[in-house]
Amino acid sequence: MSGIHKKIVVLPGDGIGPEVTNAATRLLIDCASAFGHQFDLHEMPFGGDAIDRCGEPLPAETLAACREADAILLGAVGGPKWDALPIGKRAESGLLALRKGLGLYINFRPIRVREALIGISPLRPEKVRGCNFEIIRELAGDIYFGAHEHTSANGVESARDVAQYDEHEIERVARYAFERAAARRKRLASVDKANVLATSVLWRKTVARVAKDYPGVSLENLYVDNAAMQMVLSPAQFDVIVTGNLFGDILSDEAAALAGSIGLIPSMSRGDSIKGALYEPIHGSAPSLAGRDIASPLGSIFCASLMLKESFGLLPESEWIEAAADRVLEQGYRTADIAEPGSQSVGCSKMVELIRGEMTDSLLHAERYGWGV
Predict the structure, then answer these.
(1) What is the C-alpha to C-alpha distance for residues 261 and 150, in angstroms, rounded to an integer?
(2) Fewer CB atoms inside 10 A, N or C side of the chain?
(3) pLDDT tens-digit readout, 215-242
(4) Verdict on whether the full-model pTM lies above 0.70
(5) Is 33 exposed, middle or buried (0-12, 13-18, 19+ CB in 10 A)?
(6) Which residue in 81, 89, 144, 369 is the catalytic one?
(7) Which DSSP symbol is given to 12?
(8) Distance CA 131, CA 115 (A)
(9) Has residue 368 got a pLDDT over 60?
(10) Is 193 known to be catalytic?
(11) Quick one: 1 exposed, middle or buried, by C-beta within 10 A (0-12, 13-18, 19+)?
(12) Where are the domains of the chain?
């Protein structure tokens, strides 16, 4: 296979964002060198960093660059420094504007409990061993994007947030979820609250209609409260989960806890096309950790791996990175967030060095690992 040429826009952002994105880009550069690819990396201001440099969280130049990119790698945004700004001017508002500007309406989070880290899961090993499922979250609708009102009358304050979906918004994310399930174990769980909410009644009705086009996929409907409980009682039962914006936000963070740390989970946000998909670790900017070389780079590294697989179709390259990271973890190396008794604690830069070393070793001894470049 001849090498590919791709443009990647890098948005380091705030807090630990620059550190973890630097870790991921170093591995992408290693990948390009080893497999004969060309990845053009373009760093652009975003979030609080962009507010300081350009006066706004999403400069026009950054959005324009992202629209031309084959993929986007984001670090993290936000921090106390910008919290006093009006809501629409804060660092986090740049993320909502970016999603809207790029037409991103699907969020994808793979939840995998890594065998080497099974001891740090809050659940017993027998409950989470082999746990490997995907959460597909609708990203552009629901209560987050409906009307918001805050009023005061006769000394009494009241507030209202409107949840709204149309069937087109539901159908497009449902079809993506069915396609994912069809390519995996052919089981899809749709999560809603159809016994209470009108939007969920429409959600369930629309998903059921789409299901007729996928007779090979088994569909299960779950109320969100039951889904949250099942995720704790028996998480390995899930294959692909699809749900709305609000429920997906909550459930995907709950699912991340199964792996032992929110710092381990990557995500992808995309629209109609995989071109211009946005990859970001789901952890925050953690400003108290910034510049101390103690943040975990794993979430961002797994974003790079996910990008190689989903956006560029480079499965061997993706597996090369994942396998190297797993071997480092199997050797007992841990960053502070996943440290456990008997492990060897290392900083961000050392963890990257160890993973790169394993990647190089597997190239030098390809026969040992059962593959070659």
Answers:
(1) 36
(2) N
(3) 999 999 999 999 999 999 999 999 999 9
(4) yes
(5) exposed
(6) 144
(7) E
(8) 10
(9) no
(10) yes
(11) exposed
(12) 1-112+263-373, 122-258
From the list 30, 193, 279, 309, the catalytic residue is: 193
pLDDT for 180 beyond 70: yes
- Name, in order, each residue with C-beta under 8 angstroms of 47's C-beta and a sequence gap of 6 or more: 11, 13, 14, 17, 57, 76, 77, 78, 91, 92, 94, 95, 285
Task: Report pLDDT digits (tens) over 249-274.
Answer: 999 999 999 999 999 999 999 999 99
Which DSSP letter does residue 236 get?
G
Secondary structure of 73-122 as H, E, C letters = EEEECCCHHHCCCCHHHCHHHHHHHHHHHHCCCEEEEEEECCHHHHHHCC
Q: Which of 127, 253, 293, 326 is catalytic?
A: 253
The reply to whether 122-258 shares the fold of 1-112+263-373 is yes
Options 83, 161, 213, 225, the catalytic residue: 225
Q: Compute the residue count for the chain.
A: 373
* Burial category of 270 from C-beta neighbours within 10 Å (exposed 0-12, middle 13-18, buried 19 and up): buried
The CATH superfamily of 1-112+263-373 is: Isopropylmalate Dehydrogenase (3.40.718.10)
**CATH architecture of the domain covering 122-258:** 3-Layer(aba) Sandwich (3.40)
Q: Is 212 a catalytic residue?
A: no
Locate 85 and state its tokens. Answer: 């700004």
- Residue among 55, 15, 3 nearest 295 (CA): 15
Residue 149 — very low, low, confident or very high, per pLDDT cuts 50/70/90? confident
Catalytic one of 89, 249, 275, 350: 249
pLDDT value at position 87?
Answer: 77
SS3 category, 240: strand
DSSP character at residue 58: S
Tell me if residue 70 is catalytic.
Answer: no
Q: How far apart are CA 50 and CA 39, in angstroms?
A: 24
Q: Residue 85: pLDDT band by 50, 70, 90 thresholds?
A: confident
- Catalytic residue list contains 272: no
Query: For residue 368, which phi and psi values (nearest 5 degrees)?
Result: -60, -35
